[in-house]
Recover the amino acids of this structure.
């Protein structure tokens, strides 16, 4: 992987994280139920991106979709599962809880990366994983806000996102835009039997339209593109920025202030992530320096 490719992937994943971190705010600005929101978001984003695909494919639409194959469909199904679990978690626990639990994704990705890709996690990742779990326990154990079922859905979503990250890395040849289109439509189909889209107000539809196109569609597309050029653990680490950003948007626009235990547990999780990032960065620089000295010879 060249440095320019890596930097491009890094920029795409970071921009995607900023966009996707607004999802929690969207759920607080609408009055519709979870399945209806999931259906509307999936359909709006899926149709918008399908239009983009039809324009860019220029006669290769069927061929591009056919390139997905079984691995691509598995990636799409994993992504759709993430959306279902994510919306379910946001409706049953606080935005802060969902965001902080999701911040443990780097360590779940490290475990799955080892099992699927054979990428052995370093000692710092293992230590940081334990510390992060302590932070999550502090946050959930107090019971000051959120609900256990919502926290469980958030953790299940975190596992699925980590799996999706590893799968995208494992099959980098799968086209990003078709994957995103299919996953959006899959989530909409799953939600349709439980949704009431005709009961949504014009305000709700406008909110979902704005977030579905500008935040979710473009954000998820950038994430799908960028994840191919960034190691799974590093992509998940950047995604951990969602932990402070998601509750920040809700506090800024809605005034929802997190509890003290949530702030304490979230701080522990973010410290664990930050220490791991710094440790991994130092290790990478040291390895690069050692490689350069070896290549230069005596």
């Amino acid at each position: 992987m060249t440095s320019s490719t890596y930097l491009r992937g890094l920029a795409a994943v970071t921009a995607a994280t900023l966009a996707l971190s607004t999802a929690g705010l969207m759920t607080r600005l609408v009055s519709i139920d979870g399945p209806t929101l999931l259906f509307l978001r999936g359909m709006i984003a899926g149709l918008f991106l399908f239009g983009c695909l039809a324009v860019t494919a220029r006669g290769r639409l069927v061929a591009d979709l056919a390139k997905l194959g079984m691995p691509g469909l598995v990636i799409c199904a994993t992504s759709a599962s993430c959306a279902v679990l994510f919306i379910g978690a946001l409706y049953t626990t606080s935005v802060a809880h969902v965001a902080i639990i999701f911040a443990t994704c780097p360590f779940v990705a490290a475990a799955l990366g080892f099992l699927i890709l054979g990428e052995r996690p370093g000692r710092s990742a293992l230590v940081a994983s334990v510390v992060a779990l302590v932070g999550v326990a502090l946050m959930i154990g107090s019971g000051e806000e959120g609900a256990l079922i919502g926290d469980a859905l958030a953790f299940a979503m975190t596992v699925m996102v980590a799996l999706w990250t590893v799968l995208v890395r494992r099959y980098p040849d799968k086209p990003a835009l078709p994957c995103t289109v299919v996953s959006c439509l899959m989530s909409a189909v799953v939600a349709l039997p439980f949704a009431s889209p005709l009961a949504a107000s014009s305000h709700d539809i406008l909110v979902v339209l704005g977030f579905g196109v500008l935040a979710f569609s473009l954000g998820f597309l950038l994430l799908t593109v960028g994840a191919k050029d960034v190691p799974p653990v590093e992509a998940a680490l950047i995604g951990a920025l969602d932990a402070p950003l998601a509750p920040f948007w809700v506090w800024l626009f809605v005034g929802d202030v997190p509890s003290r235990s949530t702030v304490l547990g979230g701080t522990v999780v973010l410290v664990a992530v930050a220490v791991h990032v710094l440790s991994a960065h130092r290790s990478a620089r040291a390895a690069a320096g050692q490689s350069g000295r070896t290549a230069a010879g005596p």
In short: The chain has one domain: 3-296.
